[in-house]
């Protein structure tokens, strides 16, 4: 017995052999599929970006978790793409006009890749983005110094590793919806981000929600959806 | 040496001896403090509800996790309060006029208490609420049957125990921001809700965020904040 | 003291020095032993396949978990063998005429290796096999589209990583016996497949059984045993 | 804000207020819904059994996980029901004529409740059932003594706590499809059945599948589905 | 065979049959033994307190983890003892003149018992104690308001449950040696204090040490040892 | 369908309905079966002890894990039995003449029940027993004081909870075979004995083996088997 | 500040700079120290073996966990040493005349390295050793075939990975003291040997003790101590 | 959308692009920031050391967790720095005159890197340091031999891997404040230091505090703070 051929073509699917693009997703959820780069070859990523871009009418196509090799090939083959080596992302095509604001707040310099992935994703998914880095809780003056900028956002993404305390501190300062992203930054009993994840799930500040460890992409999608449907700030007089 | 007297009174705090109400929170975050009933006596809960109500100008005061005894005393002492035995909550005072809509979706009848806590909380925090129960993934026709109602909400709360698969299914059907609540419903290797929690954190549907096990209150606060700042649906022509 | 010589030859055992083939297993259980390739050298694997083949009268011999090097050597040394680079298997000899049908369903493209291993195994162990890939729960239309093919099988193998929700959805659509295989696909709090494993063990659909993480082989053996003893479908009028 | 009324009646659902029976399941999967007794009052259980029985044309209705109080009330209110205090089950109505055979094997006397639940479930779901108890691996002569009875079954359910070794031993003796059920029997580092669960997932015998800890019901459903579609033994000349 | 008589009397041990007091410990470590009340009867606790008191020359004897029944009997039988129902402690005899200062800081009202145990212990072990309660990180103004009192202590004990973020915030504000005590306050994925414990072990503020969950006693002993050997503040001009 | 009758009588088994005694075990392993009292009624325990005693020619029969009620009934019904309320055991019949010596060493008074169970078991299984209690590592003078008695034993059982450090200290002082028993004594992050179990498995002293948490019985059986086959000390001149 | 010089020389210690040999251990425990090779350079291992050998009067010196490079250098530099590439050990000097017998039993070919380490260690520590390999529980005929050889040993070492069931089966067949060694062989939910470790700790056969995962050395030391003090078999007439 | 520019310069922060130095920390806590070398390039580390040194008036600047490459570049570029290859640290500038004494005690040679990191850190943070190595509990004579040196310190740092028993033994010998550091030394069920961490958290010796696994730096900071505020020993006559 040999490897069986799979079931035939399906509507709403663009089959590339090694991957199938769910071209129906845009209609179903309002957002297009993206390229998750981990485990894919640079050549595949370039082709997937091109295909997503062309099958969605020039809409910005996003690729995440790109290896340095993939970033390099994308830069060569798709010179109009914007590659971010910090967040390991590439964007091909024009991002939407921003609607609402997502503020991405991170605790330490090691959290930068996850924060950048979240920021780029939120932008591609239609939100305006503000990045506020290096405001760890061991230096409270920095958090307090950006308090007004936090309160002005429509949705907050708070990125932290180690003990993951920043969302509790930020969540106590403002009532803006807050998505916490634990990162795998830490060592010993941080268990690859589990300590930060548990800290965020148990936050004493009400209204904090959490995504998977290092999942900047998921936080970006969620926050953009919140921000872009938010009414302009001056309307929110409750 | 005996038990030392504590530090003196503080601004923004209402001290009842056994608890201190953070009366400054409303100004800081836009939402008032609530009474977490677990570990408090019925008499304390009644007093706390009364105090919250009177110090916040008649605004609706919420108490959660009430024992049957506490529910009974609240009903007797505060007859104008609305007590919900399913969600184990009590609300004293008029809830705000609803702004935006939160849809609370639950998988099984055992998830009802958590779903009810989330629904009541979202209402007290200013959102309109729709409750859609018993739409477990083992009977997909029910989920598909409510698809339009899901898409019409400003924020979704999806409550499920056991394997916690419902948020993935719902998240694939719509692009509405979705907060997942794992419940401790299950047995054996469900580990008191850990299986559902992990399932939700690893959801293959993008844009799913998660709160702590059985934390209907936290989901309700978050979702209400999203919903009440959402622009009316007809405006969202992006 | 040096390394002691081991006990002498035993009946029902073919001793190759670095491994012993349990040649009695076929009689005991109706199925022959297979070559588990992990940790063995390409040369050993070739010899083991040849020996299994010759000591079992030309019956198809299966090797699993083959490294690229092992696949290459098998292709060169045993040109009549069928090597599957996706499932990392090799089969030497004629597979049995298929009896009954196993449908192997997988959630995402990353689950393909485990699904292929399961499919090849089920074929070698005597069942007909149908492969249905890329039907993740975040795009329900695909699952619903193959519903009749699922119902027509004698046993289902459902392969999924991340939250492992697919078995619950499939198990709610049909009463065919269902074996779930969690894969190590995922990141962060997926813990190398533990999230999917727990999700499957806690499935709300009755009649779902589970094998170890990435254990496509075990699922294939089990499902083939179920399928090949199933009576033809038209007889099952209960 | 008070507890919101839920969504209206749905097709394929029988609504009892505190629970909804999925009356469509029989058509969808070939098996009717059952009453999971944990967390339900004796009065509710009696009503649910009656309703299941009447809405399914007198087909046998099953209730599991019944407290002593529930067993007692069922015996009084539904005298025609068969109540099993060991397996904590009740069956109302005539079980189907058995088709195929499930052998339920258990390791120790403490595993009896889970084994009985599995046996009763398999019977209600249409299989013939044979119960073989107390064949722990520390006394191999007992396992070996029932070898022929094991080989004659169409599906095996093997129930064990502590180290959960019995499925490996049984699975090495026969090629009959085998579902292993870990039980929470044990102490110390058995962690409420986790040791047995891990043992079974890692069984060195191929073709062993596993269900959740103490989940005799799930194993019974699965095994009955396998057994009742098995061709009569004399046909299986492969 | 019956229960064997144990080995005979030993120097430095006062044998009461059901317990042995290590009367040599005072000389060895500078601190006397205490009565750990969990699992002991009220009568035993009274006798142990009396014995400790008399064998150590009237030095203050401490008992911890006292049940309400034990507290009551101690109050009746040893009227000169000071019983603290919050911290569940009793102290018989005069506490030493305080040397140095320990500040005990706690996050929420539910952390009060652990904070009180730490405070009483530190006092009995020779330190002056200041108690600062209810300064959770979700209301930063309170932490910032006590900043000077924190900086004036010789050692800090910071008690917190849930996500355990308070030590990171306090540790960023001052260089005083800081012992963090995680409490079992929380629910769901707090896992009985594990979330707080991990948070504290991974604190981003340098110089934070941790004791076991709810171990106010251990923190009190440690902090008192630090405080009482501290030079008066005016000397520390480094 | 009702609860099926089980398989018929078996050789080497004495069937009491609710339990089966493995009367063949004595011949197979040299040791008779014992009564594990947990989960059995007092009446059953009395009957099992009587039966074991009579079917094994008056040999001492052991029952472990007896509740206070079971201890009481045994004392009334079997006045010749020796009941130990500390170790929760009962012994009916004459213990064998002791052969070799087992020394049972325990760390704290809370470890006494497990140590007593180990000591009684070792005696019933044929060894001489010496009990050395309360030699925790926080008071090293006591361990050092019994060093010669430790070295004179044929096998050591070392019982400890909390951090489980005693086996490492004892194992560094002598070369006698050492079985470590972790106990569930402790709190917080002791996780019911897991901390002690891990400590013992990772002991830096070579030649330490471990049994399950609180498993004094298992340690007693093992140590007695070692001790009773040990040659008299004067022969061991190596 | 730079790296401080350490404390001076100590009696009973041979200082090599990068390691200190505890030359007093032989007198204290009857057994000499060994070289744990992991993390040491080949040159260091050669020097340590030489030093141990010369400081202990030619007694056999053992090194374990040797990398291929270390094995090679030992073979070149110490040609009289016996190097075992399977068990990754080297022995320099004459092993003692064997006293008593240790039987090392292993389940699969992948367990061979741990079994070989245990066997070599037991020999160096003074016992006679018999190696019985490849007797996994999935082929019971092999275990039963060596039953007499098992019963003739003074101590058993049973090595198994995956579900770790072999000690339960062997422990039910004989009353010889049994040390179980879990190995890290397995995948998925075997968690690097944890499944086997838990299985062995929860063995239903009484008298099974356990060592750390892959710790063949520890089992060898322990078993040799038991065997070499065992009286010749003909004396043990109990 | 491309990577957004971050927020502008902040007071008390020295921005180097890839990192920001918290230059305000010295004033806030009395101690300057340090360079955590993991994940930074050698060039960055050299620049950070230089910057810290120059912005803090020549005060000793510390870098930890340096790779061999980083150590080499520091030695070349900053020849006046003191590089310690054991502890993987570099110190640039004059350490403060020592105040008080920290004794760093370690169990085995493998714990040396963590002990050295702790010792260097304590020195840079202003304490006198004494290093006492290789005093594992399996050779108690060594611990007892240094008892007076332990009692003479102002704070103890006790470093141990495997079962982590050393702090319990040391803590029972002296009343000096004791910080325990678990190391990741061990294998199998040591779980990368978790066994040692749990052992230390559950120490039976009162007054033991713990830091994260391998966190020599944190222990050094804490201990130095205790030691440098300690009054000279002759004053401590309590």
From TrEMBL, chains A, B, C, D, E, F, G, H:
<dbReference type="InterPro" id="IPR000031">
    <property type="entry name" value="PurE_dom"/>
</dbReference>
<feature type="domain" description="PurE">
    <location>
        <begin position="100"/>
        <end position="232"/>
    </location>
</feature>
<dbReference type="InterPro" id="IPR039476">
    <property type="entry name" value="P2CMN_synthase_LarB"/>
</dbReference>
<dbReference type="Pfam" id="PF00731">
    <property type="entry name" value="AIRC"/>
</dbReference>
<protein>
    <submittedName>
        <fullName>Nickel pincer cofactor biosynthesis protein LarB</fullName>
    </submittedName>
</protein>
